[in-house]
Design goal:
Largest sheet: 4 strands, mixed
Distance between the termini: 42 Å
Helix content: 25-40%
Strand order of the largest sheet: 1-2-3-4
Order of helices and strands: EHEEEHEEHEHEEE
Shape: globular
Radius of gyration: 20 Å
Length: 188
């Protein structure tokens, strides 16, 4: 049985006990990658011709997320778990070097993060150097959510950062979704 904490939600259909048990069994196979107090959230949406499975694995503030869409529940869950494993492996094998005076943030800092993963990358995989290739500075003007969506579409971007005059000038991000738009709000 699944020893971690898994919360499974569905939309547009009801999950049978057998399907829930199958999902828990698949999650059991990756439990060794994470600390025992890790929380697994599985969200499955039935759409016209397929199922979208989103898995978010969280421990404290650290989280990893995967999302896959397939024709059956089983394939969407299995592919989401495989994507999750690849993503965790990639994050854990990244080589980050940032110098601040004498301080260096390296792979050691990643090893000490809250997600416990085997760092041995499969043969042939190289460590990835992360660096910012381009910087942009923007003048964040106040605008409504509708104006931000228009700006997003005008620029043909997948997201748009703005000060939301509908929410007391909070810094927000409007972004494209499969259907419609989403809004991220900040605490400030």
């Amino acid at each position: 049985d699944f020893n971690g904490f898994a919360m499974t939600e569905t939309k547009n259909f009801n999950l049978t006990d057998g399907a829930k048990a199958a999902i828990d069994k698949k999650l059991t196979a990756i439990l060794g990658m994470f600390h025992e107090d890790t929380v697994f959230n599985v969200y499955i949406v039935k759409r016209d011709k397929d199922y979208k499975c989103e898995i978010k694995v969280q421990r404290g503030k650290d989280f990893v997320r995967s999302e896959e869409t397939r024709k059956t529940i089983e394939f969407s869950v299995e592919n989401a778990i495989n994507t999750l494993k690849k993503r965790v492996r990639k994050v854990k094998s990244m080589k980050i070097t940032k110098k601040r005076g004498n301080a260096t943030l390296s792979l050691k800092a990643i090893e000490n993060s809250n997600i416990d993963v085997d760092l041995d990358a499969p043969e042939g995989e190289e460590l990835i150097d992360m660096k910012i290739e381009r910087r942009k500075f923007i003048d964040m003007g106040e605008m409504s959510e509708d104006e931000a969506i228009l700006a997003l579409e005008s620029l043909n971007h997948s997201f748009y950062l703005f000060r939301n005059k509908d929410l007391d000038n909070k810094v927000c991000v409007v972004y494209r979704r499969d259907v419609g738009y989403g809004l991220l709000e900040t605490d400030n």
